[in-house]
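Thread title: Can someone regenerate the structure for this chain?

I was given the following input by a collaborator and told the matching structure tokens would be attached. They weren't. Posting the sequence so someone can regenerate them.
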Amino acid sequence: MLDFLNSFLGRHPERVQANVEIYTWQTCPYCIRAKLLLWWKGVKFTEYKIDGDETARANMAERANSRRSVPQIFINNQHIGGCDDLYAMDTKGQLDPLLNQAAT
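Best answer:
Regenerated them for you:
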């Protein structure tokens, strides 16, 4: 059934080889929107929920060039940015090739 649904929606999760990580807050609408795009593309990702955890937020900021807003998204350990950056990459056709690269 899932294969049919993926085919119907034009998703190809078997092609996604990238390691995707996303730092979020549970109620953040931009976090939800970013996760929806990743889900729509069939991406399995690691989510770090940092609600109220200053240590986790500091770790995120260190990885994200001092950016403390959420979400912060990393693909194959490369900082992508936030939700708007993720959607901009998708619009330009840059997201799928990055997702299809195997993590090194």
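The chain is about 40% helix and 15% strand.
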